[in-house]
UniProtKB/TrEMBL annotation, chain A:
<dbReference type="Pfam" id="PF00106">
    <property type="entry name" value="adh_short"/>
</dbReference>
<keyword id="KW-0560">Oxidoreductase</keyword>
<comment type="similarity">
    <text>Belongs to the short-chain dehydrogenases/reductases (SDR) family.</text>
</comment>
<dbReference type="InterPro" id="IPR036291">
    <property type="entry name" value="NAD(P)-bd_dom_sf"/>
</dbReference>
<protein>
    <submittedName>
        <fullName>Unannotated protein</fullName>
    </submittedName>
</protein>
<dbReference type="InterPro" id="IPR002347">
    <property type="entry name" value="SDR_fam"/>
</dbReference>
<dbReference type="InterPro" id="IPR020904">
    <property type="entry name" value="Sc_DH/Rdtase_CS"/>
</dbReference>
<dbReference type="GO" id="GO:0016491">
    <property type="term" value="F:oxidoreductase activity"/>
</dbReference>
UniProtKB/TrEMBL annotation, chain B:
<dbReference type="GO" id="GO:0016899">
    <property type="term" value="F:oxidoreductase activity, acting on the CH-OH group of donors, oxygen as acceptor"/>
</dbReference>
<dbReference type="GO" id="GO:0071949">
    <property type="term" value="F:FAD binding"/>
</dbReference>
<dbReference type="InterPro" id="IPR016169">
    <property type="entry name" value="FAD-bd_PCMH_sub2"/>
</dbReference>
<feature type="region of interest" description="Disordered">
    <location>
        <begin position="1"/>
        <end position="22"/>
    </location>
</feature>
<dbReference type="Pfam" id="PF01565">
    <property type="entry name" value="FAD_binding_4"/>
</dbReference>
<dbReference type="GO" id="GO:0080049">
    <property type="term" value="F:L-gulono-1,4-lactone dehydrogenase activity"/>
</dbReference>
<dbReference type="InterPro" id="IPR010031">
    <property type="entry name" value="FAD_lactone_oxidase-like"/>
</dbReference>
<dbReference type="InterPro" id="IPR016166">
    <property type="entry name" value="FAD-bd_PCMH"/>
</dbReference>
<feature type="domain" description="FAD-binding PCMH-type">
    <location>
        <begin position="15"/>
        <end position="185"/>
    </location>
</feature>
């Protein structure tokens, strides 16, 4: 359960190797927290993450989860709940950035990104919120991206999945009002992480820790949408309306 | 019978940690049908929602409110007892019994609590050091168990279940009605002596030596003052006024009881609220200064002595959208140094609102989960969004645990299962009784889930 100052007992990270997801979980951990579950395709690969979260009195464990295998999602949620009880905060942080060039060569690469980032996210978010409705409380954090605010030629497959996910999350967030549970959308800008290693940083770039701090602050204040950094909200208010001729030529990776 | 539920978002009086439940207002005869219609998330009874935290919430489950009328309460003037439905409020009962020369045995700082809630939380008041908590005065009660059977229990009849129900936070069954002893009164006034204490040491000294001469005693403390003024306070002690103390003109109307309603805080308050460091500092200064250094024998009405905040409807809204929590703990006698350290921690943090109460407790009763223990209890209201509040409270939790103290379940909105199991050494004994009457976990609450009570 969540207490009066927003401390939670049970945290689930979908995408247990996501640096942003784990940073949010770490920021959420307090002496009230009893369990953090990291869900990823290969649980053995998150052992180092488990160790980094370890703390006295906190159970950290990894479980197998495949975002692309949507048929397994209902059973996955049932198992998690059977093992650890009510879900207080679920962080939906998985996603493939992929390579636009590879997508250009092989349509199946694009399909895989679209399936995991959008279909997989929709599927698990529906299962999680169904459970939230039954338990009468819970918070789902959905990691969107500014890449979905206006897609650009350098990563429009990825950007389009985030655009779709963001639109889905907005509707879901509204639908959950009155259920006792809530859905919050986080829109980070360029984040320095393993996913973006070697890429040229876009303006207003940030780090997983900053995203995590702003996310948890927003969660405790009951925000519906959080931009990280906050200034991107205003930047994209302008970007969204730039003439195409200019937008296409913007030097942003 | 048709069971008709509404889906409601519920919080405690502190307006934090909302959760959703299927709710219904039911009459006594329909309780069993509504209980049958619950799912795996269980059932909980809720009175007037004055518990500060999540004690009267049951996320995803059923939350029932029992209808009740003070007109149906039975006053036995000979025995000095009252039998009332669990859903009836002390507010409604006082309107009936005060004019007839009786007062409730225990009242908290608000009269807007139900009889059922008073038993389930084993509430205490300003007379605890002399007369104990509410459960001490209950002669018998009617309890519906999870299987729908109805049982008469009391201190002599099935005492283990009775004392598990007193302070049991509604987790042993549905309290349908209770019979409890009343205090006979000659007037509806209280004679109150006031003493202003320049710091916490003076207050502790004063209470340690003088409290036992009074039926009622309570102190307000300024938890924003630091240094030599740490815990400066005002101590009010008194008793019900005797008829002989009144002039013949006043004596004619000695039992008049008319609680006033001054105003209601509107539902629209700026989200940041009105309670902050500045407003609280100003309030505390004025509140302290307005009291005389020492005054003997002033008269106060029952509402103004016992329930001053009840004159303002929905005052909890003053804290804004973030809500607030009321942190209350008790420390045993001999731990006055630790009490002072905690007061200093709160004072230095500058988070406390003006609502701070210090009270000296008397003996405990036999209920395993009853809060009062011989010693001191401090109650502090704090805006829930205060910076660094979580860490501050965990630090104080630790100090409370180290000192053999405990937290009050009816107020709690923050602490951990560990603090509760340490603070209530008889928790396991209570759990065994609870399980024996509710093997299928029919009774559940957010508080019970968060603190692993069941």
């Amino acid at each position: 359960m969540e207490n009066a100052v927003g401390e939670v007992q049970n945290i689930l990270v979908l995408g247990g190797r996501s640096e942003i997801g784990v940073a949010i979980a770490r920021e959420l951990v307090t002496p009230s927290t009893q369990r953090v579950t990291l869900a990823c395709r290969q649980p053995v690969e998150s052992r180092d993450v488990e160790a980094s979260l370890a703390r006295n009195g906190l159970r950290v464990e990894s479980v197998s989860f495949d975002a692309a295998d949507t048929a397994s999602h209902a059973g996955f949620v049932d198992n998690i709940v059977a093992g650890s009880g009510d879900l207080d905060v679920v962080i939906l942080a998985f996603g493939i950035l992929g390579s636009q060039e590879q997508c250009d060569d092989d349509a199946q690469s694009a399909v895989k990104i679209a399936h995991t980032n959008y279909t997989g996210a929709v599927s698990i978010a529906m299962e999680i919120t169904k459970r939230f409705r039954q338990q009468g409380h819970g918070r789902l954090i959905i990691l969107s991206s500014v890449a979905g605010e206006r897609t650009r030629k350098a990563n429009y497959v990825y950007g389009s999945t985030k655009a779709g996910l963001d639109a889905f999350a907005q509707g879901l967030s509204d639908a959950m009002v009155g259920s006792g549970a809530s859905v919050m959308i986080v829109r980070p800008g360029f984040v320095h992480s393993a996913m973006t290693t070697g890429m040229k940083a876009a303006p207003f770039s940030t780090t997983p820790d900053v995203v995590a701090k702003l996310t948890v602050k927003g969660l405790r204040a009951g925000k519906r949408i959080v931009w990280t950094p906050g200034i991107l909200r205003w930047v994209f208010m302008v970007m969204r309306h730039l003439p195409v001729a200019i937008w296409r030529r913007m030097p942003m990776g | 019978m048709e069971t008709d539920f509404t889906t409601s978002r519920l919080t405690g009086w502190g307006q934090t940690s909302p959760s959703s439940a299927r709710t219904a207002e039911v009459s006594r005869g329909d309780v069993a049908a509504f209980i049958k219609d619950s799912n795996r998330r269980g059932v909980l009874m809720r009175g007037l929602g004055r518990s500060y935290g999540d004690a009267a919430q049951n996320a995803g489950g059923v939350v029932l409110t029992l209808k009740g009328s003070a007109q149906e309460a039975v006053l036995d003037v000979e025995a000095g007892t009252l039998t009332a439905g669990a859903g009836v409020s002390l507010h409604d009962l006082l309107k009936v019994i005060v004019p007839r020369g009786f007062f409730v045995p225990v009242t908290p700082g608000t009269r807007f609590v139900t009889v059922g809630g008073a038993v389930a939380s084993d509430i205490h008041g300003k007379n605890h050091h002399v007369e104990g908590s509410f459960g001490n005065h209950v002669r018998r009660l009617t309890l519906m168990l999870a299987d729908g059977t109805i049982h008469e229990i009391g201190p002599e009849q099935n005492p283990s279940l009775f004392w598990a129900t007193v302070g049991g936070m509604g987790l042993t069954g549905v309290i349908l009605d209770a019979t409890f002893a009343l205090i006979p009164i000659e007037t509806s006034l209280c004679t109150v002596n006031t003493i202003r204490c320049r710091n916490i040491d003076v207050l502790i000294e004063e209470m340690s030596h003088g409290d036992d001469d009074y039926r009622y005693s309570v102190a307000w403390a300024d938890l924003l003052a630091t240094g030599s003024r740490l815990g400066r306070s005002v101590l009010w002690r008194g008793d019900h006024t005797k008829l002989a103390e009144l002039s013949s003109k006043d004596a004619a109307n000695a039992l008049r009881y008319q609680p006033r309603h001054l105003a209601t805080v509107p539902p629209v308050v700026p989200s940041f609220g009105f309670v902050n460091k500045l407003s609280s500092t100003v309030f505390n200064e004025l509140w302290f200064r307005k009291e005389p250094r020492r005054k003997e024998g002033g008269h106060k009405s029952i509402p103004s002595y016992f329930h001053p905040l009840d004159a303002i409807g929905s005052w909890n809204r003053l804290y804004g959208a973030g809500g607030f929590l009321q942190y209350q703990f008790a420390l045993p006698f001999g731990r006055e140094d630790e009490l002072r350290q905690i007061i200093e921690k709160v004072a230095v943090s500058k988070t406390a609102s003006p609502l701070v109460v210090l009270k000296r407790f008397g003996a405990s009763n036999p209920a395993p989960l009853s809060f009062p223990m011989p010693g001191w209890t401090l109650t502090v209201d704090i805006p829930a969004r205060a910076e660094g509040l979580g860490i501050l409270l965990h630090t104080i939790d630790e100090m409370v645990m180290q000192s053999g103290g405990r937290h009050y379940l009816a107020k709690d909105a923050h602490t951990t299962p560990l603090a509760i199991s340490r603070g209530y050494p008889r928790l396991e004994e209570w759990k065994q009784i609870q399980r024996s009457v509710d093997p299928d976990r029919r009774w559940q609450s957010d508080l019970a889930r968060r603190l692993e009570l069941i």
